[in-house]
Amino acid sequence: MKQIQNAADLQQAVREAKDKGRQIGLVPTMGALHEGHLSLIERAMKENDLVVVSLFVNPIQFNNKEDLEKYPRTLEADLDLIKSLESRVKNEAKATEVLAFSPSVAEMYPDGEPTEIVYHFGPVEEVMEGPRRPGHFNGVAVVVRRLFDLAQPTRAYFGEKDYQQIAIIRALLEQIKYPIELVPCPIVRADDGLALSSRNKRLSPAARQMAPAINATLEQAAEMAEYEEVDDVKEWVLDTLASWHEVHDCGEGLQFEPEYFEIVDARTLQPIATWDEAGDLGAVGCIAVWLDGVRLIDIVKF
Ligand code: PAF
């Protein structure tokens, strides 16, 4: 692994790789790496000759200043994780090199942090996270476009936990017409089912014990979908989590506060009223829940 902090150095490495006809895999991250990120990097290493992992906490995608300040920054530990992954998968990897790109904000945005909304994605951004986090997807699209320009990847890897983000990147690629293969990767879960996330570190021990109930509830919802209507499944998930503390001993006055649970077409992300309305990718349930002051998201495929 080689750490690169300057855009020019990354461009140089990319040029050399391209001259040799190498395929490049890009794994965009905001650092604070966990096994979920490592699974993306591992897959990228198996499918490409060169892998670029970006480690950059992108200020313009945070619409909440406190969230940006609290975002964990663990660069040294991240670099160590990439190095040990490299030695772990060395024999099965196609990639001969991993570049860890960890630029400063000034390096990413030499003309200052862009404040304008430059991307509009239509209906796919008008649901779920979109209206609740104004400007978020524009900020994601701006940074991802910049990473695409610098790394010129053959493939780009994104985790399915941020399901709507994948739809946004798909729409971005349609707009900018870059020939990049978008590779959605399955969620990695802890043994108790909790979707891995950098935010999990902020949960108190009692909240961490309670959090797997989100996935357990979604799994039950998937079973209910065999015989219940869409609206009934939705209502049941929201009610089950909102009343969890009344039925279980949660301690510390903890309770789930669901922000939304939507059952949507997996491609368009538009809410469906009947299971038959789901198109070629099927239906997916997307949830955002507050627990212990931490906002957790997860999905279930129906
Ligand atoms: O999913 C994330 O971690 C971020 O939104 C991304 C794609 C790295 C852009 O900053």
Q: What is the CATH third-level topology name of the largest domain?
A: Rossmann fold
- Run of helices and strands: EHEHEHHEHHHEHEHHHHEEE
Helix content: 25-40%
Q: Just give the CATH class of the largest domain.
A: Alpha Beta
Number of domains in the coordinates?
2
Q: Profile the largest sheet.
A: 6 strands, parallel
Return the structural class: alpha/beta
Overview of the structural elements:
The protein is an alpha/beta fold. The protein folds into two domains: about 1-185, HUPs (Rossmann fold), CATH 3.40.50; about 200-300, 2-Layer Sandwich (Pantoate--beta-alanine Ligase, Chain: A,domain 2). Helices cover about 40% and strands about 20% of the residues. It has helices at about 5-20, 35-45, 65-70, 75-90, 105-110, 130, 135-150, 165-175, 205-210, 215-225, 230-240, 245, and strands spanning about 1-5, 25-30, 50-55, 95-100, 155-160, 180-185, 255-265, 285-290, 295-300. The strands form two sheets. A six-stranded parallel beta sheet has the order 1-4-3-2-5-6, sandwiched between helices. The protein has a three-stranded antiparallel beta sheet with strand order 7-8-9, with helices on one face. Helix 2 (about 35-45) crosses helix 4, helix 7 crosses helix 8 (about 165-175) and helix 10 runs antiparallel to helix 11 (about 230-240). The chain is globular and about 60 Å long. The model has no long low-confidence stretch (mean pLDDT about 95). The structure holds pantoate. Pantoate binds next to strand 2 and helix 7.
